[in-house]
Structure formats: C-alpha cells, structure tokens
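Lab meeting prep.
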Amino acid sequence: MGTAREPELAGQTVVAIGGSAGIGLETARRARAEGADVILTGRDPDRLRQAAAELGAKQTAAFDATDTGALTSFFRSVPAPIDHVMITAGGPRYGPLLEMDAAAVRQALSDHAVLALEVTRNAVAKMRPGGTLLFMGGTGGRRIGHDLGIASAATAALPPFAAALALEVAPIRVNLIAAGFVDTPLSASLLGDQLAARREQLRATLPIGRVVEPADVAALAVHIMTNTALTGATYDVDGGQQFVES
C-alpha cells in the first residue's frame, strides 16, 4: 500500500480577492482541499456568504476591491501570517481608442496594475517569505484588433509589471496567470445568449478539444503557490486559443 499524500498547503493561508465566484472561488476550493485556510472577498455579500459556507472560510469581507480605503481596512483585519494572495477581481475593458476620453484611457491602462499594487502594498508586511502574489491577465489581448482597442495595451503592461514587482518584494514571489476564454459566470453574463455558440466554437477549434474551465486555472494557481522556484513569470492557460484565433 502507498502512503497517503500530505496536503500541499497544510498550515497555510490563502486570500482570494474576488473569491466568491468563478476562478477565484475555484482556486479557493482547490486550496482548501490542499489543506489551506481560505479568506474570501467579493462585492456581493450573499454570494460571498454561500461561498464561505461551502468552503468553511476562515474570514470573509464584502467590498469593492478598487476602493483603496476598504482594501486597506480589510488587510488590517486579516491576521498574520498570510501565505498567498490571488486577485481575480475586475475585468478587461474594450472599445475603440478614439472614442475614449483621457480619464477612460488612464483607467483602462492602469486598473489591473493599480489594484495589484495596492493589494501588494497592504499584504506584503503580513506575508511569509516564499509565498506568492498571483495576478490575472489574458492571452487574447496579445492580438491587435478593432474589437480589442485599449485591451491589448493593458494586457502588454502586466508581464513586465509582475516581473519588476517580484524583484521589489522578494523573497515573496509575484506571478501572473494569463487565461483565454474561461467558462465562468462572468463569461456567461458578458456573452448572454451567445454563450452556447462560443462554447461550441472553442470545442471545435481549440487544440485541447474542450473549453477551459475555472478548475484548469485553479490547478495552475495552486501549483504556482506550492512551487517556490516560480517568480516574476507569466503562465498561459488558454487551451491553445492564442494560436488558433487571429
């Protein structure tokens, strides 16, 4: 008989910013299965309560992660030590460049980086060496197209941002996950009645022959948490979407 495998995150604490649904919730679920305590945040109090009850979350907080004051208050309330923080809050912005005013351009270019920076600023003092800050980017925005607009520039900024930040906060690690289409409630809300057609298109064209699920991203996230040699890097999880869509 083989010996039972030890949970890889036993005794560790994972904070999921945007952890009440989709990729954030699935990552928290997998981290919990690996023995971690999980702390969840989200904007929707009801959805957050349901997620916390399912996972047996150690702590929750309902607030908008882009509210700097609320974010600071939350991290003050979190007991040290924290091992890993993952941010899945927020989404991409699309639209023709010339239709955006200066404020909208600044916001679109900086939203994800500013949120990541504010989370880092508040979290690092409570994090254990070797833990990781995990940010979400995308592979679709690497293309240039009329439908993408500002999203391509915002996508391009994140890998060097994460790498530079990794040097500043070492030995805490910083990594970026770049996903393509992931079958989440957010995707469903954005696509509406076009969701089924999009799923079928991806099944027919992706090299993996199926749609990427939140569990696929969660598996990568937990691997990055447990492999302490990984920092300053970007990891793609899009089923090969970037190679077949132009």
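Slide two material, second protein:
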Amino acid sequence: MAQRVAVAMSGGVDSSVAAYLLLKEGCDVLGFFMRTGVEQGDAPESARRVADRLGIELAVLDLSEPFRAVIDYFCDEYCRGRTPNPCILCNPRMKFGHMLSAARQRGADFLATGHYARIERGERFRLLRGIDQTKDQSYFLCRLTQEPLAGARFPNGERTKEQVREIARAADLPVAHRAESQEVCFVPEGEYRSLLRARRPDAIRTGLLKDTTGAVLGEHEGHPFFTIGQRRGLGIAVGEPRYVVRIDAEKNEVVVGPREELFGENLTAAEVTWVSIPPPASDLRAEVQVRYAHRAAPATVHPLSTDRVEVTFDEAQLAITPGQAAVFYDGDVLLGGGWIE
C-alpha cells in the first residue's frame, strides 16, 4: 500500500517540487494549503494550479485563528525590545502541530514541507542540515521534538536549490520561474512598522536615542522599530557609523555605539528544545548559530537546567540579539536550540 503523505503547499517552488518528488516515489500525496487570513499575493491560486498540474487533491485548512498567536508573538517581541523569528514559532505550532494533526486525521503518515533539511531515522530521530549549505533551513526547525520529527518529510533536503529549480522546469510546474520570497509571510514587502502601528499603536511612542555613556543624541519614533546591529534609519549624524547596541523597552530608549560594542562572547538561551540528543547533563562543545544568516561558531554550551543554557563562544560574535534563536550543531546534526535572552 502506498505511503500517504500530506504536503504543506505554499504556492512556491520548494513545496511544489516536494509534492512532485513524493509522487515520483509512488506516495499517495495530498496537498494542504494553510489559510492564515493574511495571505499575500496569489499564493492560494498558485498552490491550486500546482495541485491541478500534479493531479492531487488540495485541501484548504483555515488556521487563521491559531495563526493570530504567531502574529501576536511577532508584535509583542518587538514591543519587548526583542527581535522575533516567527518561522521558528510557526513550524512546530502550525505546520508540525495543526497541519500534521490534520494530516493524520486524513490517514496520512507524514507531513512534508519544502524545507532544505534532512532527517536521519534510527533509535532517535536526528535533524540534519540540508545538503545545500547556502540554502540550509534546519535553523528554522530547531524547536521540533521527536514526535513531530517522526511524522516529517523533507524531500528537498538532499538537493540544491538549483536542482530543485531544474526539477520544477523539467516537470513543467507552473511555479518553475516564480521568484523566491525572503519576507515574513504576513508582513507586506517587509514593512513591519506598518503592522506594529496597526496592531500595537500604544507601544509606538517617541523616546530618547542615547550613546553608551548616557548622552542624548536625539529622539526616535518608537523602540519597537529598532533591532540590535541596526545602522540605517537612526536619524543621527555623529561623524562615524553608529549601531544599535541595546534596546531598553521599559524606558523606551535606544542605545547606539560603535561597531566594536556589538561583539559579545556569551549568551543565555531559554526554552531550549533538545532535538537530536537528550538534554545533556554536562558541558558540550558545539557550533552555535545565533541567526539564520550567521555562520555557526565554536562554543561551549553549559546546561543551567534541562531547558536553559549558557553559551560561551571561543571568539566574540557580532550582534547577538535577544529574541533570535541560538541553535547548536555538531557538524550537520542539529542538537537543539533556544531563545536568546
């Protein structure tokens, strides 16, 4: 009997090719489109065209109610002076939470996505980086536990992005030449300030812009509009580049300084999820990645409890940002990850 797999289809190239590859494997494929209530562009129609081309059913799941919690998290983190990563929250809650549950209700054994990541199946499921190191998306999956990993499939993980594009062209998929989006799905054109003004108007207040000595350099429009490491849009001219080095949400203050003040050797991460290994009882060596575009750096991870760690880097790292995820790797194996405090 063919393995039944539901595919989270966004209307993009990656998820469309994932569905195609599973069909080629001989799987019984069902498409899922997640309706969030804030869809951008022609994503629903695009997913429908691909499903029709592949000859598979496309079920539309209305998850707009639970998805509001993801948007609330995004807005609240900025208001707390932190920089959110909504994809890291969305993957376990929405895709491998609500969508995986819906897949199993429809008799599917697995939920597949277009992520560039791999799963090694054994006594314990291990999450690995995708083969394409320039496209690897395991970072965004750092909060998946063993149960959702058991029900996950990542067909693109063994391929490069260019190979996936070529498969889409060869299969004549209607999204083969679709441009890749790098934006948060519910933030039009990356303009998150408009979203914050609409959803958290009371948090947007003018405040002081200071340097690290406490000297006032000017005013800002609202601390939620800033993130650690930001250089542009500060509205000041002091003769040399200045970067946001600290955000004080309680005081509504933004502190700037020279680039060298952005470097740090330590961080504390909370709500740590141990993915490929059980919670360690002692220090472990790992390469730690502090944002998606960061190259993982050697560090010592010191457990403070089962879900809280302190990380000490061998060399200071740039712009360690509260609200982002610190993700721990052993080579290609994702050990776990937590939110930077």
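Talking points for slide two:
The first strand starts at residue 4 and ends at 8.
The helical segments are 13-25, 43-54, 64-79, 86-105, 146-150, 161-170, 192-199.
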